[in-house]
Structures are given as structure tokens and as C-alpha cells.
Specification:
The protein is α/β, with parallel strands linked by helices and 234 residues long. The protein is 36% helix and 18% strand. The protein has helices at 14-21, 43-54, 89-94, 99-121, 145-155, 171-178, 208-223, and strands spanning 34-38, 57-60, 63-68, 71-80, 84-87, 133-137, 161-165, 183-185. The protein has a 5-stranded parallel beta sheet, with helices on both faces. Helix 1 packs across helix 2. The chain is globular, with a radius of gyration of 17 Å. Keywords: Glycosyltransferase, Transferase. GO terms for molecular function: glycosyltransferase activity. This is Phosphoribosyltransferase. It holds the Pfam family Pribosyltran.
Length: 234
């Protein structure tokens, strides 16, 4: 679906964007073999709505974008747990980065990734995704580097199926994802992306506190029978 930037379709906020992902994911509802993995921080409010509506497990997969030093919002790659590292060769050809500077960005983001894993996952055991259907959720994609790193981290655990579900992304990013996963859900596909936040009316930065509060709420819902299929790693 193509959208004129002058008359663009907007999501009110991340929660509503998450609810828009539920109908196309309805086949996965109330299945014990399904787990929704949010990419913090912005993906958590979206994924929370998906998991609660589908009555499936919710957990986190921490991924860090490697921002271009001269353009921090532009990804030159991404990292995920387990030593996963994805580099955007096109970006690095367009904006060459000194090797020492690249390594310093990787080191800094690795430190932040580990901090977030400790903060968000707490004492939860590592994810066990073998033979599971994994739905990866973020609040939107631009280059897709972070999602590619997430996919690689998930694939290393031999899941039965990988689904990517995002509210908005450009067509070229979605095309690249289709060759990496089993299914891609994206209701809004603008020809010109501009930025993820451009497609939201309300797009504040998601805080650590909000991430942890939503994960706590999801855990309470699961323990009270609000979601099907108890997680092995809860």
C-alpha cells in the first residue's frame, strides 16, 4: 500500500499500532507453541498488545542499532545477544567509517545491550526457542538492520517458524526480510519512509520503566490464566 506523504495515514500511538497487527496474526492465537518477542524499547508497547490479544507468551529480544557516527539515526549495522553482528555494507560504502571508530561504536552498544538485558530480563532464564513459532515485533523499520540481527539470533535456536510483524516499513526493507523469514506482516508500507516516528501521532521515547512495567503486566496476565501456554523460560 502506497501513501502520499502530504496525506499520510498515522497510528495514534504504539498501543493502537499493536492492535492493528492482531487481525492478520489471528491464526497464532491461543497456541502454546507461539511466543511474541519484542525488540526493546519501542517494540514493547506494540508487542504487549499483540501478545495479550492473541493470548500467547511475551518476552524480549534485546537488539542494538549501530548508528552511523555522522548520522546516529542511520544504521550501519546492529548487534544482538549471542555475539550476533550485522553490518550494512551499503551504508558503509556510502559513508565510510574508520575501523577503530566502528569498533568503538560496537563496544559501546555491546555494553548498552548487556545493561538492557540485565535490566529488562532480570532473572529470567535464557530464551528457548527450538521448535517454537516466533513472532518478532518492533514499532517500525527503516533499514531493517536491527530486525535482521534479531532474526539471526532467533534462527540460531532452530525455531519452527519466524514471523516478523511491524506497523510500518518501506517496501525495500520488507522485500529483504521476506527472504529471511516465513512470514512478514506490515499494514502500512509507504514509498518514502522518512522515519518510523513520522507515521505516528504520538511517538515518545519508551522508557526503561515502561518496558519493565509492561513485561510485569504481561507476566501477571499469564500467571492468572490470561494467556495460553506457559513459557518455559518464565
Amino acid at each position: 500500500m502506497s501513501h502520499d506523504l502530504a496525506r499520510r495515514t498515522l497510528y495514534p500511538d504504539r498501543a493502537e499500532a499493536g492492535r492493528c497487527l492482531v487481525p492478520p496474526l489471528s491464526q497464532y492465537a491461543e497456541r502454546a507453541d507461539v511466543i511474541v518477542l519484542a525488540l526493546p524499547r519501542g517494540g514493547v508497547p506494540v508487542a504487549y498488545e499483540v501478545a495479550i490479544a492473541l493470548k500467547v507468551r511475551l518476552d524480549l529480544l534485546v537488539v542494538r542499532k549501530l548508528g552511523m557516527p555522522s548520522h546516529p539515526e542511520y544504521a550501519m549495522g546492529a548487534i544482538a545477544g549471542g555475539g550476533v553482528k550485522i553490518l550494512n555494507d551499503d551504508a558503509l560504502r556510502a559513508y565510510p567509517v574508520d575501523r577503530a571508530l566502528l569498533e568503538s561504536v560496537i563496544a559501546r552498544e555491546t555494553q548498552e545491550l548487556r545493561r538492557r538485558e540485565r535490566a529488562y530480563r532480570g532473572g529470567r532464564p535464557p530464551l528457548r526457542l527450538k521448535d517454537q513459532t516466533v513472532i518478532l515485533v518492533d514499532d517500525g523499520l527503516a533499514t531493517g538492520a536491527s530486525m535482521m540481527a534479531a532474526i539471526q539470533a532467533v534462527r540460531a535456536q532452530s525455531p519452527a517458524r519466524i514471523v516478523v510483524a511491524v506497523p510500518v516499513a518501506p517496501p525495500e526493507t520488507l522485500e529483504a526480510l521476506w527472504s529471511e523469514v516465513d512470514e512478514v506482516i506490515c499494514p502500512l508500507v509507504p514509498d518514502r519512509m522518512v522515519s518510523v516516528g513520522y507515521w505516528y501521532q504520538d511517538f515518545p521515547q519508551t522508557s526503561d520503566e515502561e518496558v519493565m512495567a509492561l513485561m510485569d503486566k504481561a507476566g501477571i496476565a499469564a500467571s492468572s490464566g490470561g494467556r495460553g501456554g506457559e513459557a518455559e523460560d518464565d
